[in-house]
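Structure (tokenized):
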């Protein structure tokens, strides 16, 4: 005999409430000048939110797309292929913008890239951009 489901009662204490939140994106703090993890009281702190985005972007842009450790993934940037090449300035700037946006938009946290600016000073390229993310606007300036 089947139970009479119409009389089934569930108390509110038996129900677990699930809230819909964006997944927590985190990474470890990194000192790009020293080339090593940041240590605080002997531990490597985790960063989240906008700080996560900044660290992730720096790492992605410093990584050559297709390098053997990330082979088969979209991680990294193809802009490294422009280094040492002599192209028209406008073409180079357009390719930098295209390849960098392509590299950044693989991260679902970053919804768009705007205000992309390129400055060249002899053999150095400096980038500035605004990243629209699920954590709000993140301004990246003087990225080299």
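Design, position by position:
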């Amino acid at each position: 005999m089947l139970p009479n489901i119409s009389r089934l009662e569930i108390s509110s204490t038996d129900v677990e409430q699930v809230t819909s939140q964006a997944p927590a994106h985190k990474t470890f703090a990194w000192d790009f000048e020293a080339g090593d993890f940041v240590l605080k009281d002997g531990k490597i702190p985790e960063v989240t939110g906008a700080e996560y985005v900044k660290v992730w972007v720096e790492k992605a842009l410093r990584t050559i797309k297709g390098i053997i450790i990330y082979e088969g993934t979209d991680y990294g940037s193809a802009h490294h292929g422009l280094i040492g090449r002599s192209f028209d300035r406008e073409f180079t700037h357009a390719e930098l913008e295209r390849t960098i946006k392509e590299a950044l938009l693989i991260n679902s946290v970053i919804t768009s890239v705007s205000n992309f600016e390129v400055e060249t000073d002899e053999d150095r390229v400096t980038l500035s951009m605004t990243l629209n993310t699920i954590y709000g606007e993140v301004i990246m300036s003087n990225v080299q």
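Reviewer-requested clarification: The first strand starts at residue 26 and ends at 28. The longest helix spans residues 89-104.
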